[in-house]
Amino acid sequence: MGNNSYTQLASDLVGLVGGRDNIISVTNCMTRLRFVLKDENAAKTDEIKAIKDVKGVVRQGGQYQIIIGTHVNAVITDVRKEAGITEGEEKPDMKLLKEGNLFDRIFKIISGCIMPMIGVMVASGMIKGLLAVLTTAKVLEAADGTYLILYAAANSIMYFLPVIVGFNAGKVFGCNQFITAIIGASLIYPDILAAQTAGTALTFLKIPVTLINYSGSLLPVVAASWVASKIEKGAKKVVPQMLQLFFVPTIVLMITVPLSYLVIGPVMTYVSNCLSAGVMFIFNHVPVLGGVLFGAFWQLIVLLGLHSAFIPVLMNNLFTLGSDPVNAVLGLTVWALAGVSLGYALRTKDKEKKSLGFGNLVSCLFGITEPTIYSIALPNFKLFIAAFVGGGVGGGIMAGLGGRMYSFIGDGIFRFPAMINPKGLDISFYGFAVCAAISFVISAVLAFILAGEDTNKADGSK
């Protein structure tokens, strides 16, 4: 599709969601346009779904999401032009934070703090995977300057995560982003980290400080940024406007940073550890069951919008434990859907549907499953069941083998570098390769069998 077609598509979409006056903001992920609308009921969902280039519509997390496909990055440019929205000038959408119950709002906030840095996190994981391959092959040594410089590029986002998340959180909460970034930086200040490492006791105004290494932490700086936003708003009400430039940041930092060390950080660290402990209990005591359940139904969980609840757990596992058995299993669900795409493509006789199946297979191999879900699996739910079975079998085996994911990275073929243990290739890598093949083959065979009757009927066969 060329850019002229995107212009027409953008015009149609903006009109059908209620016009530019009904649009608060529009962003995108890898496959979806994510609108925040003043009135979602004004959107003509059935007409939007009827557009050829639209693969589906999802209402989730206060957003009206239109599934376009992997070319969504090109589409959103014309959508923003049609809607009269300039990228980067959108204000933080507080509607997203206020809608839904407390549980939903918390995970919307966390998602808003994480999503802007996903691309860089994936890049970090890919570099780490490459370094693991090079050291395993004895091309590089961990003490080499080349290794150290590339590892700095790869690991900095993890080490300085509180700074980056703090900056994102400032936008989410409508606070000065440099203030919240500095709060994150204060949590990993070298002298205090050195005191923590040495076991030195510190006090603040004679109050004992619980020293924790916050590098790679997520929830403490998110909570601290929320507190900072409240203090900033209060300070602006009492400080004269001509003095706010200097005195408001001073007040916010002098209150929030000590609070972060004394209360916010320790409490949120405890919450993070409890969340991880709950999920890890299953994988530590009945790993096969956990692998089967997550391997089978993760894509369904994503489809229902419930996956946000697991984001803090998955990230906390990786950041605090250094590896994650849960995410090792989740990567197999992509291979199961890739198998479904292949089975469907091989069975159908219709050239357009065959092309759709093979195209979706390629998409899945590059980690994008939504085209398969919305164009193949959902219209024929038996094919989704084929993915459940393949993913469940592969997930159960992977969890039973004790496989772990070692870096945050993409899905499909890009997941393999994340499965490389920095100490060398082990069962995590080899086990994932075998289990991915198992999930792929089982789902492909089942999809080939289950798709047969429906695809033949659709093609006019008797």
UniProtKB/TrEMBL annotation:
It comes from the Bacteria. Residues 121-462 form the PTS EIIC type-1 domain. Pfam families: PTS_EIIB, PTS_EIIC. InterPro entries: Glu_permease_IIB, PTrfase_EIIB_Cys, PTS_EIIC, PTS_EIIC_1, PTS_IIB_1, PTS_Sugar-Specific_Components. The active site is at residue 29. The chain crosses the membrane at residues 106-127, 147-167, 179-205, 211-231, 243-264, 296-315, 327-346, 358-377, 383-406, 427-451. Residues 7-89 form the PTS EIIB type-1 domain. It is a multi-pass membrane protein. It is found in: Cell membrane. SUPFAM superfamilies: Glucose permease domain IIB. Keywords: Cell membrane, Kinase, Membrane, Phosphotransferase system, Sugar transport, Transferase, Transmembrane, Transmembrane helix, Transport. CDD domains: PTS_IIB_glc. This is PTS lactose transporter subunit IIB. The lineage of its organism: Bacteria, Bacillati, Bacillota, Clostridia, Lachnospirales.
